[in-house]
Amino acid sequence: MPLTVAKLRTIKSTGKIERFYDEKGLYLEVTKAGGKYWRFKYAFGGKESRLTIGPWPDVSLDEAREARDEYRKSLRAGVPPSDYKNTPKADSITFKSVAEDWRANMGNIWSDSHAKTTLGRLELDVYPVLGDKALESITPHDVLPMLRSIEARGAYETAQRVLGICSMIFRYGVATKIILSDPCRDLRDALVPYTSKHFAAITRPAEVGRLLLTIDEYKGSAIVRAALVFSALTFCRPGEIRHAEWDEIDWKEKEWLLPAEKTKLRREHIVPLSRQAIEVLEGIRALTGRGRYVFPGQHNKTRPLSENGVNCALRRMGYTSDEMTAHGFRSMASTLLNEQGCWRFDVIERQLAHVEKSSVRGAYNRAEYLPERRQMMQAWADYLDELRALASGE
User: Fold this and answer.
1) Catalytic residue flag (residue 269)
2) pTM higher than 0.70 for the full model?
3) Marked catalytic residue, from 161, 225, 330, 388
4) Any catalytic annotation for residue 237?
5) Total domain count for the chain?
6) Range of the domain at 68
7) Distance (Å, rounded) from C-alpha 310 to C-alpha 34?
8) Is 314 left (phi over 0), alpha (psi -120 to 50) or beta?
9) Residue pLDDT, tens place only, 155-193
């Protein structure tokens, strides 16, 4: 049944992609983010394709039908609609509208922190300059001055990252047949080169031993001290440790199971717990075991430990941000485990929950190498005990 204006006014977003069909290939697509776009489905050269006409209500039902009829004429003449330029109000498909659709489609993949950071960069630097521009009208000469203004404040890494975000949005526009190419593709070499800094970490065995002794002697919060020791033993990401919950601890199997929504890669991850890690948990259980979080906030026990809790403790212990960070426990473990030569690289990488650069995403197995990882985690904890003993002169 053909669409009507009355029907269009009743269509609401349900948080998923839905299509409402009119006639002869025309339909209205409602995106996850709530955008409503007229699209035309057609076949040319034996291949099915779709073309974006424009957003509703900026492009009315009658205008969308007129565009569809023009496209059908071009098909009969042997010309693909993608080559036909007479699209009504094509300039109403703005950069911001496409960016919001792109963000909605990526929502199930990104971590909350990454989604927040990406939106912040768009709202601060990109939307004020490109947001209201028609996506198809934007050229490299529109994008580069925006990036130069970011560089002007010394934020060279941010400029590179904003360029990457914009490029992904334009490529999304190409994939959804709104534009033909990405204007960012030739701009990377135009920016000031930037080499990202790694998180500071202590990796010399003797210094690791002294660090562990300093943590043991820390006079601040017992919860923070336990989080520091647990970080060294498990070398998980700081956010994962801060948000650890008692319900995720399997005491029988001596494992910590991180649910997919809490991990950077959005995959479940198993952390085998060494005898020493279990002792840390048992020691803090009396303090926090009745609540949700293993390491709750110091002032609000219903919330996780603050993002700066561990880093602030390291500063109070005398370690600068150029010497050691909360994330540095991961680099510390990675470096020393690889230097020992006792463990396969793949086993270490799996325990670090790093991205597999050459494997198929669908083949991921949370329990892969688990017996070896279990042995490695216990050996690592024993090694830390040895370094601590050497540092104390025992």
Assistant:
1) no
2) no
3) 330
4) yes
5) 3
6) 5-89
7) 40
8) alpha
9) 888 888 899 999 999 998 888 777 888 999 888 788 888
